Every structure is written in structure tokens, then in C-alpha cells.
Amino acid sequence: MNSEVKKYIEAEIFPRYEKMPGHKDDHIKYVIDRSLKIAKKINSGEFKTTAKDFENLPDELKTGKIDLNMSYVIAAFHDLGREVDDDYHHLISAGFLLTDKKLREFFSRDELRVMADAVMDHRASNKMDPITIYGRIVSSADRNTDVKTILHRCYETKRAAYPDETEDEIIERTRETLIKKYGGKNAYAAKKMFFPDPAYAGFLDEVEKITKDKSEFRKLFPLK
């Protein structure tokens, strides 16, 4: 890892997440950690890949190996656009990455383009799968495996978005969002794991269980 890249991200990018409900820098650090773990398992051969996995990359990146610095920055920028708009944050985040003058000191134009594409592709709600392996890495890393964390994030996001609604209304919005995103095999986030992860499979089962009954879900609140 390039120490100057990390220094820049930690000093200038992490602080921007502190005002984002449900997506503070602890989430970003979580996604960075998971991204790097996946990347290292690819590089070590633990996660098997083929030439096809690298086919949509520029020639200089078709090495069969993942650049850890690129994965780090992709994860660091992936939710940054939420400071402007939640619905289009993936596009805004990609724009922030592409126009960041400091990053140009460390990465080529082609590398920045690949990184921006990965940021745009990370959302679980995207209808299309990520176009490169870098997008598949960050999309998979963005899938949380801790139910308590997801409950807090989802609730905080809904509370911030609907300040005039009652507590019961916010809690039901939280439940409905979790069902749509994680509840069952047809939930859109259930399909966005591109690498082996037993912990995520267990997480999906647990979310489906706790959201099944509206009255039982209500008993989980207030969250601790």
C-alpha cells in the first residue's frame, strides 16, 4: 500500500463522512477492510479467477492481480456522494473521484476511470452487475454481515430522511427497506455477493427472520 495515498484519504476523505446519517467513516473503514481482504485472497489464489474476470480492464491492468491501492480508494470514495444526494450518490461519488486532483498524482487516467466505474457499480440496487472485477470487489465488500449494524444504519437513514414521521412509521419504513433489500432469495442485495462469504449467507437468513413479523420487529426498538 502507498502510505501517501492512505495519508490523503485519512486526512481529507474520512472526515467528510462524519455528517452522514448511517454512513459514517466506520462503515467506510469496514468496506475498505473487506475490499482489501477480498483483493488479497484473489492475489494469493484463494479466490480463483480467470482471464475473463479481467477482460474489461485496460491492458496494463490485465495482470491477474488486484491493485490494492485502487481497491482502497474505490472503497473510500464509494459512498462520498451521499453528502449531496442519497439516490444518486454512486454517480456523484464517481464524479468526486474522477475530479480529485490529488488522486491524479498517484493514478493514471485509465486507473481513475476503472475506479470511477467501480464506484458507480457498487450499489446493490443496480440492475446490472459490475463491469469489472474492481466493481465486484467493492460491491461484495459493501454487503454488511452484522444485523445490528444494518438495523442502526437503516433506521438512522430513515429518521434523517423523514423527520416529521412518527417513530412507528420510521420503524415500519426500516422493516420494509430491509425486506426489499435483504429479505429472501429475490431481494436485490442477496444477489450482489460475487465471492464466497458464509457470514453473508447467515446474515441474510437472520434479516429474513427478524423482519417476517411486524409486531415482533417493533419490539427490537429502541435500538441499543
Question: What does the model show?
Answer:
The chain is mainly alpha-helical and 224 residues long. It folds into two domains: 3-141, Hypothetical protein af1432 (Orthogonal Bundle); 147-218, no CATH class. The chain is built from ten helices and no strands. It has helices at 3-13, 25-44, 68-77, 89-98, 109-121, 133-141, 147-161, 167-182, 198-211, 214-218. Helix 1 packs parallel to helix 3 (68-77) and helix 4 (89-98) runs antiparallel to helix 5. It is globular. It starts with a helix and ends in a 6-residue tail after the last helix. The model has no long low-confidence stretch (mean pLDDT 94).
Briefly summarize what is shown.
This protein is an all-alpha fold and 224 residues long. The chain has helices at 3-13, 25-44, 68-77, 89-98, 109-121, 133-141, 147-161, 167-182, 198-211, 214-218.
